[in-house]
């Protein structure tokens, strides 16, 4: 799905603007990693992109059509949103959570049929969590929940995935596998937008990155244009080195430096 954001400005009622004049595009096959300090508006932007919060001004276009004119059901069929720290109220089983992804495709009084069941099981299997199918979602680990939620999104067959800090509860191995799965989904045609607090996630897994700070993008571009020593220092107030990985000159990693480095001039090589 093609996403176009044009001059987007948003403010919560009675508060100052969270962001203003944001513009960017996303195309199918793209993984867009949104970075930025706490409280800078990443979750708010994702909620605007899912049509949950209305922009104060500007436009969000999905395949050229203005999102503000879309009904909730149409958005739910085509856009999937996994919010931060999602905890369901009811002890649904993992399979039932995956089946929830099929809801926008059912009739008003419809219940899931064989095909829905098949898609939900296939999605759980693809993410390695089919053995959890009958376990209550409330009794599995945070990382397993995240995988079950992604299965629900796969079963939904949405075209745009919005994921708010999806790796927050995953161990190192599962973070790596989860990000690789997002890359595979993008190659299969989805557009994926995730937020993260780890610049390396942008470097390792995204085709586009942006840093949101003080209501605007410090930079939006390729991950190596965005995750630079000066922009990371400007965004987070920490000194870092961005190092090449010897095994692959295209790969880079972002390493924090000791605090006093912020005040010392950078040594010459
Ligand atoms: N419902 C709300 N009403 C009023 N202000 C809100 C509301 N939700 C968030 N805010 C404020 O909007 C700003 C952006 O919050 P948001 O949650 O979008 O940031 P974030 O970048 O996702 O943060 P984090 O990285 O900590 O998750 C913050 O100042 C926050 O306090």
TrEMBL record:
Species source reads: Aminomonas paucivorans DSM 12260
Q: Which GO terms describe its molecular function?
A: ATP binding; ATP hydrolysis activity
Could you tell me which Gene3D superfamilies the record lists for this protein?
P-loop containing nucleotide triphosphate hydrolases (3.40.50.300)
Q: Which UniProt keywords apply?
A: ATP-binding, Nucleotide-binding, Translocase, Transport
Q: What is this protein called?
A: ABC transporter related protein
Q: Name one Pfam family in it.
A: ABC_tran
> Where's the ABC transporter domain?
3-239
């Amino acid at each position: 799905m093609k996403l176009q954001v044009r001059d987007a400005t948003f403010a919560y009622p009675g508060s100052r603007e969270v962001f203003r004049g944001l513009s960017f595009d996303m195309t199918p096959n793209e993984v867009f990693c949104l970075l930025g300090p706490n409280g800078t508006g990443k979750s708010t932007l994702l909620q605007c992109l899912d049509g949950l919060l209305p922009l104060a001004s500007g436009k969000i276009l999905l395949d050229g059509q203005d999102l503000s004119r879309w009904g909730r059901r149409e958005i739910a069929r085509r856009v999937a949103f996994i919010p931060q720290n999602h905890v369901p109220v009811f002890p649904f089983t993992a399979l039932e959570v995956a089946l929830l992804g099929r809801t926008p495709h059912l009739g008003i009084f419809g219940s899931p049929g064989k095909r829905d069941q098949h898609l939900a099981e296939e999605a759980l299997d693809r993410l390695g969590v089919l053995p959890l199918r009958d376990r209550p979602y409330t009794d599995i680990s945070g990382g397993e929940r995240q995988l079950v939620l992604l299965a629900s999104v796969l079963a939904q067959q949405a075209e745009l995935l919005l994921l708010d800090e999806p790796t927050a509860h995953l161990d190192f191995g599962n973070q790596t596998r989860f990000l690789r799965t997002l890359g595979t989904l993008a190659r299969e045609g989805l557009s994926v937008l995730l937020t993260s607090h780890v610049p390396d996630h942008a470097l390792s897994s995204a085709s586009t990155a942006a840093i949101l700070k003080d209501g605007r993008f410090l930079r939006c571009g390729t991950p190596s244009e965005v995750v630079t020593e000066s922009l990371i220092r400007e965004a987070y107030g920490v000194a870092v080195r961005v190092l090449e990985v010897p095994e692959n000159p295209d790969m880079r990693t972002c390493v924090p430096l000791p605090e006093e480095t912020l005040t010392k001039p950078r040594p010459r090589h």
